[in-house]
Automatic annotation (TrEMBL):
<dbReference type="Pfam" id="PF00535">
    <property type="entry name" value="Glycos_transf_2"/>
</dbReference>
<feature type="transmembrane region" description="Helical">
    <location>
        <begin position="268"/>
        <end position="289"/>
    </location>
</feature>
<keyword id="KW-0472">Membrane</keyword>
<dbReference type="InterPro" id="IPR029044">
    <property type="entry name" value="Nucleotide-diphossugar_trans"/>
</dbReference>
<comment type="similarity">
    <text>Belongs to the glycosyltransferase 2 family.</text>
</comment>
<dbReference type="InterPro" id="IPR001173">
    <property type="entry name" value="Glyco_trans_2-like"/>
</dbReference>
<dbReference type="Pfam" id="PF26629">
    <property type="entry name" value="GT2_TM_C"/>
</dbReference>
<dbReference type="InterPro" id="IPR050256">
    <property type="entry name" value="Glycosyltransferase_2"/>
</dbReference>
<feature type="transmembrane region" description="Helical">
    <location>
        <begin position="228"/>
        <end position="248"/>
    </location>
</feature>
<feature type="transmembrane region" description="Helical">
    <location>
        <begin position="355"/>
        <end position="377"/>
    </location>
</feature>
<keyword id="KW-1133">Transmembrane helix</keyword>
<feature type="transmembrane region" description="Helical">
    <location>
        <begin position="310"/>
        <end position="335"/>
    </location>
</feature>
<feature type="domain" description="Glycosyltransferase 2-like">
    <location>
        <begin position="4"/>
        <end position="163"/>
    </location>
</feature>
<keyword id="KW-0808">Transferase</keyword>
<feature type="domain" description="Low-salt glycan biosynthesis hexosyltransferase Agl6 C-terminal transmembrane region">
    <location>
        <begin position="283"/>
        <end position="376"/>
    </location>
</feature>
<dbReference type="GO" id="GO:0016740">
    <property type="term" value="F:transferase activity"/>
</dbReference>
<protein>
    <submittedName>
        <fullName>Glycosyltransferase involved in cell wall biosynthesis</fullName>
    </submittedName>
</protein>
Length: 418
């Protein structure tokens, strides 16, 4: 079978039959060997029977959520290609050929673009049209290098095997973002075709909740991009803190009417520590995500881990600790020079703060080196060849043992008889 059209459904009695008939009509008109699968997520309004009567195959998906319903339909699909679309009659299922043609041409994922194809009056709320979709799509392109202009178009087509291979996991509305992000990160062939969005045919409110689901999309984009969530903010904070710290260690800095002194030095120290921790978190996240299969392995991170071994991390942490201890010794000497009496904070803090910062970073470095080494311990995984070889060996041993076991049983029965 060439094509399966998958429609997630939750109480779409008003429109599901119309969508199914349109999709079947399109496939029949163009001679496509295909089917329509309605992934029902617990409808209580009779949507299931209406879909069957219109010619669809209905599969029940118990786990709630837009993404869960779609994955249930995708797994149940029999077609080489899958086109998914909402069952609310907002997308034109009679115009599926642009998607099919791109898939036949070798595309792994074909996204619809509503901004290129046209959004009819009343089809999309202004908040989504001018803020939500453009901003989230821009963030997706910035974070992941994707060229997709409409991250959240509900009408899209893909090779079933390609999408199953990248391991989609989210169960809610953020499933739409996850598909584009993971397809991009895994290097799949992603293309776009214009598509039209019309007002849906339902009389009830949509399942989508603007702020809640918008936040879920944004949260997903941030969590899947440690570079923008941790690394870049951390490097910026470290750079600012280091520059300010070096200047203020030498003495006060006056810019116009503003005078920066040791209180600013303490803030600069905090920025360095927090920024360094954020950079380490970026590294932790990348290693963990690659080991667990959430993200494809980053060769740059892998090379960095190979270069920065546990031993080198411990040495670097030790050197920072020595620098920090040296600074503290210098502060004690400074105190002794002042007969262990009251010190001028403006002088003392210029020694103590950098020393304490070095000590804190030394322990961060040591703990990070240990933790990354733990994350890098690979679990032993049997590949299919190993499993097959073990099965053959066990079968051979069983065949070899069988005659001996049978002979032993006969000898035992003979002995008992006599």
């Amino acid at each position: 079978m060439e094509l399966t059209v998958v429609m997630p459904c939750l109480n779409e009695a008003e429109t599901v039959a119309t969508c199914v008939r349109k999709a079947i009509e399109c496939m029949e008109r163009h001679g496509i060997d295909g089917e329509v699968v309605v992934a029902d997520n617990g409808s209580t309004d009779g949507s299931q029977q209406l879909a069957r009567d219109a010619g669809a195959r209905v599969v029940h998906v118990a786990e709630k959520g837009y993404g869960n319903a779609l994955m249930g339909g995708i797994r149940a699909a029999r077609g080489k290609y899958v086109i998914m679309g909402d069952a609310d009659d907002s997308y034109d299922f009679t115009a599926l050929m642009p998607f099919v043609e791109q898939l036949r041409d070798g595309a792994d994922l074909v996204m619809g673009n509503r901004f290129r194809g046209g959004i009819k009056p009343g089809a999309m709320p202004p908040l989504h049209r001018y803020l939500g979709n453009p901003v989230l799509s821009f963030i997706g392109r910035l974070f992941f290098g994707s060229k997709v202009g409409d991250f959240h178009c509900g009408l899209r087509g893909f090779r079933r095997d390609s999408i199953l291979r990248i391991g989609l996991q989210t169960g809610g509305m953020e499933f739409a973002s996850e598909m584009v992000v993971k397809a991009t990160l895994h290097g799949l062939d992603v293309r776009e075709v214009p598509t039209t969005l019309s007002p849906d045919g339902r009389s009830r409110p949509p399942h989508l909740r603007s702020w809640r689901d918008g936040w879920r999309h944004l949260r997903f984009l941030l969590l899947y991009s440690p570079r923008w969530l941790f690394l870049i903010p951390g490097l910026v904070m470290m750079a600012i803190g280091l520059v300010a710290g070096v200047l203020l260690t030498k003495g006060p800095v006056v810019i116009g009417a503003l005078a920066f002194d040791v209180d600013t030095l303490v803030g600069a120290s905090a920025m360095v520590v927090i920024g360094f921790q954020a950079v380490l978190f970026a590294l932790f996240t990348k290693v963990y995500a690659a080991e667990e299969g959430f993200l494809p392995e980053d060769r740059r991170v892998r090379r960095l881990i190979e270069v920065i071994s546990l031993e080198k991390g411990l040495v670097a942490g030790g050197l920072l600790a020595l620098a920090g201890l040296g600074g503290l010794v210098a502060s004690l000497v400074h105190w002794k020079v002042n007969n262990f009496g009251e010190l001028n904070p403006r002088e003392a803090l210029r020694i103590v703060v950098p020393s304490a910062t070095a000590l804190i970073m030394s322990f961060q470095t040591i703990f990070a080196a240990l933790f990354i080494s733990i994350l890098g311990i690979r679990r032993t995984k049997e590949n299919p060849e190993d499993v097959a070889a073990s099965a053959v060996e066990e079968a051979a041993e069983a065949v070899t043992r069988a005659p001996k076991d049978a002979s032993a049983i006969v000898d035992k029965e003979t002995a008992e008889t006599t």
